[in-house]
Specification:
This protein has about 400 residues and is an alpha/beta fold. It is about 35% helix and about 15% strand. It has a 7-stranded parallel β-sheet with strand order 3-2-1-4-5-8-9, sandwiched between helices. Strand 1, helix 1 and strand 2 form a beta-alpha-beta unit.
Length: about 400
């Protein structure tokens, strides 16, 4: 596919891999460079990932602090809403580029760069796209989740009900600060007018976003989930179940604990979080492994009976479900979260009603059966490896989005 754009300015808070979104941004930058495109990686926070050391990649890193690690809390509060230094620096970068051959791609901006950068491409006559790795483009807390009631939030962002709701994971003053940031993003940076195409990372997330962005141009581009292929392990005897993720309320941890104890199954948990100590005290029969290297997690997947994905909030993707399929691990997933985009009910896993302990218990009991577990395992394994979720596939999909964006007419 021939692109009019030959230079891509990729904007992300961090220049290193500190989570899923930076991994996607950096991996895509590297793949574009390998294909001969020129890439400028614009970031706020060092260090610089080894993957960005490439003759086709120029890194512009501001060496700033993330908001939570800034020793000056006053500076963090101000720059978290509007980082003028970041805006000035991105403006300088874009002014040297040709608008007819340069496209800007935003990933994460909420931890350092702030909404101030979002309108810079439009101001300088360039086109831009934004990947919505979370819901911060709309929701002040980024998750459409009420941490007080521990339920999905149906309020309209920035409505009176939204502003008054004490739904933040930290405090109400923190929520009000986030409201201010979102208001500046909406009315100061004018995000909906500034961005040409919004990219959703799953069909599920796109449906949620469509409720609030019906007039905007959106496309779905699945995040990459490249895996190493190992032989599938047949499920011939019952095995422990597996959970991979943060040990926190919104992940449905207490629901899983109660259901697992009711079903009489053992669970091995890979991950950490604020609930770990309490869980270890209340759930002695579970095995807590903490965060583990990627190869260890894959080995756990190959030996488990099924992956439990009980999340109470929407998520935006849930790539661990894809990683499970690549390792022949069936997935039990709440039908109210984005991981359903990757789990085919009764084929590669089972769905249960989100938040329902009764239905989760029933699903756990069903998958104690090695025959059913092995059938779902085989189908999930074949599904992933028939068309692996490589970074090359991801960039192919990105390029199809880029190709549909018309060149600026006012430059």
């Amino acid at each position: 596919m021939t692109l009019p754009y030959t230079t891509f300015v990729i904007v992300n808070d961090q220049a290193h891999i500190s989570g899923g979104a930076p991994l996607v941004a950096i991996s895509a930058a590297r793949e574009l460079a390998e294909r001969g495109y020129r890439v400028v990686f614009f970031a706020g926070v060092a260090p610089i990932a080894e993957e960005l050391h490439h003759p086709q990649i120029e890194v512009v890193c501001l060496n700033q602090h993330e908001i939570l690690s800034d020793p000056s809390r006053i500076r963090a509060a101000v720059t978290g809403i509007w980082n003028q230094a970041a805006r000035n620096a991105l403006t300088a970068v874009l002014r040297r580029e040709n608008p007819q051959t340069t496209l800007v791609h935003f990933h994460v901006w909420m931890k350092c760069l702030s909404p101030s950068v979002l309108s810079v491409p439009q101001a300088e006559g360039l086109r831009s796209v934004l990947t919505q790795h979370d819901f911060f483009a709309l929701c002040p807390t980024g998750g459409f989740y009420d941490f007080g009631s521990q339920q999905v939030c149906e309020r309209k962002p920035l409505s009176l009900g939204c502003v008054c709701a004490n739904c933040d994971s930290r405090s109400y003053p923190q929520k009000l600060w986030r409201v201010a940031r979102t208001a500046v993003q909406a009315y100061g940076a004018q995000i909906n007018r500034a961005i040409d195409v919004f990219i959703s990372v799953s069909t599920f997330a796109d449906k949620i976003l469509a409720r609030h962005q019906p007039q905007l141009k959106r496309r779905v581009v699945d995040n990459p989930a490249p895996m190493v292929r190992y032989p599938r392990t047949p499920r011939t005897t019952p095995r422990p179940f597996l959970f991979v993720g943060r040990l926190s309320e919104e992940k449905g941890i207490w629901l899983m604990k109660k259901a697992a104890q009711k079903a009489g199954i053992q669970v091995r948990l890979v991950g950490d979080g604020p609930l770990r100590k309490q869980l270890e005290a209340d759930w002695p029969e579970a095995v807590f492994l903490g965060w583990q290297p990627r190869d260890v997690v894959q080995a756990e997947m190959r030996e488990a009976q099924a992956l439990i994905f009980p999340s109470l909030w929407y998520e935006t993707a849930g790539l661990v479900a894809i990683e499970a399929a690549a390792n022949g691990l069936p997935v039990i997933v709440a039908d109210t979260c984005a991981a359903t985009s990757y789990v085919q009910p009764e084929k590669t896993g089972l769905w249960f009603k989100g938040g329902s302990q009764v239905e989760l218990v029933a699903a756990l009991l069903r998958l104690k059966d090695p025959t059913l577990a092995d059938s779902l395992s085989a189908q999930g394994y074949d599904w992933y490896w028939s068309q692996p979720w490589t970074i090359a596939r991801h960039v192919d999909d990105l390029i199809s989005v880029y190709a549909d964006i018309p060149l600026p007419t006012n430059s």
